[in-house]
Amino acid sequence: MQTTNQDSSMKLKVALAWGFVGIPLLWGVLQTIDNAMKLFK
Amino acid sequence: MGALSFLDRQHTVAEPGFSRWMVPPAALCIHLCIGQAYALSVFNLPMTKLIGITQSAPDDWKLTDLGWIFSIAIVFLGLSAAVFGRWVEEGGPRRAMFTAGLCWSGGFLLSAVGVYSHSLWLIYFGYGVLGGCGLGLGYISPVSTLIKWFPDRPGMATGMAIMGFGGGAFIASPLSVWLMQKFSTPTHVGVAEAFIALGVIYFCFMMVGAAIVRIPAPGWKPEGYTPPAVSQKLITTKHVYVYDAIKTPQFWLIWCVLCLNVTAGIGVLGQASAMSQEMFPGHVTALAAAGFVGLLSLFNMLGRFFWASISDVIGRKNTYFCFFVLGTVLYIAVPWTGATGSVALFVLCFVIIMSMYGGGFATVPAYLKDMFGTRYVGAIHGVLLTAWSAAGVFGPVLVNYIRQYQIDHGVAKAQAYNTTMYIMAGLLVIGFVCNFLITAVHERYHMRDHETEEAEADVAAIGKPVGA
Q: What ipTM was reported for this prediction?
């Protein structure tokens, strides 16, 4: 039971850590793609 | 031990149950911040109007003076990575990340003072020297840690981190523009305040990375992974000491491989906007050219993850062979795309070239690990980054001077880049030969078993998890 709780807690930490770096990166990438589309307009 | 003992290596050893997938985000926290260096140019124009506000005044800084800030930072990136590589390796990733955060954010704060006092030398020292040291320390700090956590996929792991360096500009560029807009007034350009805000944001972000990073406990290996018992043709199970590594021909061949691959890419990256407009006059506007530069940066970032991951399957040497063969063909094809007026093919050529430019950076740590082992790979990688500093000078100089020489001799602007492209292709052919010459490191350079055991015992002695 304790191991399962530790596993869930670690999975949550991993998800939070990836969200912390992934969300700003995704925002930046979307901004760049939006600008890059001007090349094809 | 003192107040900073939490930075020590023994406080970063992972406890049982720790997921290795926490380590790439820790590395990304650092690389996404220091990747801002690629977006420094968004400050160039506003910094030429600090006094004149709407247009440059006679006492305002010139663009040519401001260009030195980036150059100094890249030089100090290479120097600090080379000088402090062993310190980073032996002190552990948290101490290195913490120091990198202090240098990087401190560089921004000093630069803000430089803008307030209108002292360009202070900015050279702040962003260039101090920030450059933060770049160097931050760049190499997570590399060997990732390789130790992912012995089964070292290319993919380091590719993820180094992808962050390419991606940092995507965040920094719009964020910097937004901050300057927020802080600017009709009588004031908001550069100094934007520097302060960025310094604070980056410090917090990098400290999160330093807090969550962990090194594996001695003897740890991924579930189901069996390390190879004997060395394969180009993958050693031995270790080479950092100062012995630089005595090997293999190190200098990899140095040339990286330098030539980067030289070919970096010159083009700096001139991409002008090149696309001059090769396709009337077809590519300034706005579209900016989009083209963004697209190149995107593929530079994606290539870091893609090619480094591919290298785990096909091997590092074959990956670099792909870069050099494919790159040569594409550079030769560029003048043809200009002659046929095909913007789409031109863009296609360069996005693939840029993906391989990024891929070269991301694959090289795993190449070093294959050749020299894991023990000092971070330090060896640090010394190797001097190849980047050298390429940062060669690349732009080659592209700019050859173009100018062509124009001065009556060549039309649309064709002025043709010779440059052929020279870049020639550089890649030399890179191919260097890569071809790389063989396994001679065993006289390997650390003796008792030296490796002593080195590992040192780590094991301090490497017990906290509280265990």
A: 0.91
